[in-house]
Amino acid sequence: MKPNFITTYPTIPLLKMKVWEEIKTFAQEEYQQLSIIKSFQSDFYDLISEARGGIIDNNQALLLQSLHTLKGIAGTIGATRLQFITKEAEGMARIDNAFIDEIEHCGKVSIDALNNHCG
Predict the structure, then answer these.
(1) Which of 22, 55, 87, 115 has its CA 20 to 30 A from that of 33?
(2) Which pTM does this prediction carry?
């Protein structure tokens, strides 16, 4: 049975609140914060789709590029666990759709947490 990577790393915080507090220093209005989250969400789903395409097409370069970019934007917005999981994926010899499902689930939970913290 494959490990569930989201529950394997419960000590890693879902969000790094210090990063989000820093974001709030320049995006002080709620609509600005929501715009940042919406942009992250859009990029997140685009990158997940690209990663899946890389698996389907056996295009390792596209898969790793998508994960690397996702890792970077997750870190920028403070989605710590998502950043960690994508970093782990970058080091794996083989990534399958089940692992991308785990990353996608973690991203959805992170987006929900960001939306709940906004304002």
Answers:
(1) 87
(2) 0.87
